Amino acid sequence: MALRHYTLDFNLSTAVDSDSTVAGLLSIFHEREMTETVLETQGHGYLATFVGKNGRLAILRVHSHRMVTIDLQCFEDDDVAQLDNLLNALETKLKTLLNGNIQRIKRLPALVRGATVDRYWPLADGRLVEYDIDRVVFDEESAYQDIKIMHSKQFGNILILNGDVNLAESDIAYTKAIMGSGKENYAGKEVLVLGGGDGGILSEVVKQKPKMITMVEIDQKVVDACRKHMRKTCGDVLDNLKGDCHQVLIEDCVPVLKKYVQQGRTFDYVINDLTAIPISTEPEEDSTWEFLRLILDLSMKVLHPSGKYFTQGNSTNMTDALSLYEEQLGRLSCPVGFSKEVVCVPSYLELWVFYTIWKK
Fold this sequence. Notes:
7-stranded mixed β-sheet, single chain
């Protein structure tokens, strides 16, 4: 059974006397038959728990550094009206007790912990977001990663890989950005897509009648899951791994790229949809950076001299990681130029950077 966790915070101008503050609140807890247990804080204010019926737990802390905080935990099936009544009573009483000393009052919606449907997912910069997810559509482990597809009321089905939001059915902005934002003509061109198992890029490029688009995706389970549950993204393009102008290779892209280099094969466009730029800013110690450099070097070797390489970057807030990525572009086996574009991808809930790279 899930747990709801409410918080009520008072930021103060000056520290307050614990005894008088607590004394004014005790009757509220006692009226609700909640039993107090005072804990030792070694001189850092007052800390107590109050346990009541149905497993309710309140934590009251009068901090020595100008804060009073209340945490209230209860099970999901508890009476919400009673809990609101308790929090309202505590907030009203504290406003009276702390009158003239309050800088800010913050009461947040309940955090639901342990629910069957996980609604909380981190953004690239570490902030936590609660999505409007109402059901789990697909949830399996492959040989390579944890694969989830969750349904959002706003964004449709969302593909989540290893805890990272990858793409939602609402996110055509992502697909268009990583294809050049409508500035490119793929008709009659040779196109290589690295990753892209959701089928979004494949579906959009096929509409333009390329000579051939080759998608290299390592994880068959991602393709199978998206074929069934991300139809608004991929359409019917994943129903057959080969078509008149497309082919899907279920392989590791590194040996495929090395084979193409040996064969002297080139592409007009290479679209890297494998992974975001790592958050780590220690590229010499991070295997993901080594992988990105390898992919970049191999991709430049198979890119036609007048071709373009498209890839996602990361959140605009990840300035250090983005700068470091741009430094890596100056260390490739051939000189390159680049431009970047910032796009709002709906389900990401943050601005995202996309790169266009070309040979000089």
